[in-house]
Design goal:
The structure is a homodimer. Chain A is an alpha/beta fold. Chain A has 2 domains: 282 residues, 3-Layer(aba) Sandwich (Rossmann fold), CATH 3.40.50.1820; 98 residues, Orthogonal Bundle (Rna Polymerase Sigma Factor, Chain: A). Chain A is 32% helix and 15% strand. Chain A is built from 11 helices and 13 strands. In chain A, strand 10, helix 2 and strand 11 form a beta-alpha-beta unit. In chain A, helix 3 runs antiparallel to helix 5. The radius of gyration of chain A is 21 Å and the shape is globular. Chain A starts with a strand and ends with a helix. The C terminus of chain A is likely disordered. Chains A and B meet through helix 3, helix 5, helix 6, helix 7 and helix 8 of A and helix 3, helix 5, helix 6, helix 7 and helix 8 of B.
């Protein structure tokens, strides 16, 4: 029997004893191990999540948000570690595209994560110490299996929509593949149906940077009272460049110098782009765990929806009842439009209900996290149409403080 | 007074006492310091180089090859450390596009390098120990200034052609800008007139990887009897991904597994692309110096031909007598065709003699190092036309063992 616990919402005054105290939690006990794709069962499992809005009477208005590689459950309220607004605060809230006056939004921290959900830095019941590399290598399928436990525990038979970008988009596709009857609508954004060789290569660079850091200690840094912050910062810097486009970098920084008028003829951060990148690396290590980074990137590398179907994607979606909206961005070279088109072609081949939109943007892969008006309009519009098909009523426009309590849009 | 020394050519049996013993060397003595762009004069300077073919009587058939970031002078014969054929062995030799029966080919190791030319691992006469970070930060302009000393010492007033790709292409452009009367023809390949923000960012990731390695010791690893091999390998891996195209990676590796039929659910090199990348990192550290990598990448970052001209490229080439052939590759996203076009536009604006060829290739930036038939034809053809304009005779087709002694095509 699983149990959900509701903890007090974040007050914003930073006085809570743990940064994760304000997350809700699903606890799957040791007696109910969850099978993993690697063959090892996992127990216990904790899934930390946040909800926004109210579940309606027939439980038909639930939207599941799947976060990306370094995202977390704080999709629409202040991050407990960084103090920054939710990573999709402009997307979720009353009157926003994902309207919390109308929908019940659930965002769990993914399995393998480091914000309260079970992952490599959780305590291994067999040893009483963090799993570290004894944590089993998980897949996108495992992440989704754990999310299904949460959705079941919340008493929801069918999600109104599953939405996510990048690694989140992989989870959306996996949901539609594994639980078609539980997914009324699906919005995979800036993603792929299998991780490409180039993207595996970029991930491998990041992992090697972490694993080469002497403070990593074969994953047991916790035992040594250190953290492989240098390696993790390098991994983040390398990845961050791939999230942007050359156009965006050129517009934002060009060859502008940082706090100086002339080149220093040294190895300091002469250029603004260097200073920006170093900052990205340094701040990332405050909120993310190195082992989690290894496991999450590995899950993405392993993702290949056509595995087990002879490399063909079409059989995966045969007979799917789900309505899809596939979104890509013109300047995203990490998950380019061509990848999304392949998903669209596979869905078309099985006569699925699919919309496809390529958003004009020069902001690279990062665009899915940004306030891009056309992108927001597309999501708003698709969800409106989906709600009509599902027979959901219009947004509750009356005052209802409760439904707004959790979100901080 | 500078002095050139000729050492015995490589016998190929690996019995020479030093891997660099078979390089020719120019020695610029302490009494003749060379000014650097940073303001510090540098002395002494050694320039290690290789030549192929024979200089003709009027010294009009010399081609200077400028190597890329991690290249060296062993452009057309066996590398003394790796034992591999020259990096442009298919390009240079009798009957090849850069025909050693016709041209006298000079390839120096760039200033700041680690294959015999003065760089950060050379001995600082002030201390008797390697310069390490006391070596002045050099520029592409400094590299070219040092090459000019070599060309002068060889008694060559005008180079028939200067050729190079990537960082080598930057040097070609700098030659044409600084010594227009000394450059009859110029072939800048897969390059740019100023390093972009994205490329600075990628370099910064590599530098941070090296400088984060505890074995780097602020550059003084030599003193500690260690080398920052882990950081340098990460830098190489990160850079190597950028040299390839997603298409090439997909064709070469796709998601194929390395020596196994199933995923290992671990962090070993499951995928061939991971194994390949690790190999690239590991082998690189055997032949390259970490501090050199810092200095060479910095020189590229600093490269901006329009600096000092209000950001405008046109004045740089005003009145240029040089004939240019600009070459780019369709799938090169590190130095894309758009960068080359900007050079062409600037040259056109001053009515320079310029050809521009974009080669169809899916091999990414690496294409300039590969045996791409159309690329070889373009170079061959341009050089033929250039030779006609210069009044050079046809290739010497008679037997002349001497002219073939140095090269190993």
């Amino acid at each position: 029997m699983t149990a959900t616990e509701s903890r007090p919402p974040l007050t914003g005054d930073g006085t809570t004893s743990s940064p994760l105290d304000h997350s809700q939690r699903l606890v799957v006990p040791v007696a109910e191990p969850m099978p993993l794709d690697c063959g090892t069962p996992l127990a216990p499992i904790v899934i930390a999540y946040r909800t926004y809005g109210k579940l309606n009477a027939d439980r038909s208005n639930a939207i599941l948000i799947c976060h990306a590689l370094t995202g977390d459950q704080f999709v629409a309220d202040r991050h407990p570690v960084t103090g920054k607004p939710g990573w999709w605060g402009h997307m979720i809230g009353p009157g926003r595209p994902i309207d919390t006056d109308r929908y019940f939004v659930i965002c769990p921290n993914a399995l393998g994560g480091c914000m309260g959900t079970t992952g490599p830095n959780s305590i291994d019941p067999a040893t009483g110490a963090p799993y570290a590399l004894d944590f089993p290598v998980i897949t996108i399928g495992d992440m989704v299996r754990a999310q299904k436990l949460l959705v079941d525990a919340l008493g929801i038979d069918q999600l109104f929509c599953v939405i996510g970008g990048s690694m989140g988009g992989m989870q959306v596709l996996q949901w539609a593949a594994d639980y078609p009857d539980s997914v009324f609508g699906a919005i995979p954004i800036a993603t792929s149906w299998r991780h490409t060789a180039q993207n595996i290569a970029f991930h491998e660079v990041g992992r090697q940077a972490i694993m080469s850091d002497p403070d990593w200690h074969e994953g047991n840094y916790d035992r040594f009272g250190v953290r492989p912050t240098r390696g993790l910062a390098i991994a983040r810097m390398a990845a961050h460049v791939t999230y942007l486009s050359e156009t965006a970098l050129h517009r934002k920084f060009g060859r502008s110098l940082q706090d100086r008028k002339m080149l220093s003829f040294g190895f300091g951060a002469d250029f603004q782009v260097e200073s920006y990148l170093r900052h990205q690396g340094i701040t990332f290590v405050d909120r993310f765990d190195a082992n989690s980074y290894l496991y999450m990137t590995r899950a993405m590398d392993y993702f290949d929806l056509a595995l087990g179907h002879g490399g063909r994607l079409t059989p995966v979606f045969l007979g799917t009842p789900t309505r899809f909206c596939i979104v890509s961005f013109t300047s995203d070279w990490l998950f380019p439009t061509s990848e999304s088109r392949q998903i669209v072609h596979a869905l078309n081949a099985v006569a699925a209900n699919v919309s496809f939109v390529e958003i004009e943007s020069d902001k690279g892969h990062d665009a899915f996290l940004l306030d891009e008006p056309e992108f927001l309009r597309v999501l708003h519009g698709f969800l409106d149409g989906l709600a009509e098909h599902r027979g959901l009523g219009p947004a509750d426009t009356g005052p209802d403080p409760d439904s707004r309590a959790a979100g901080q849009p």
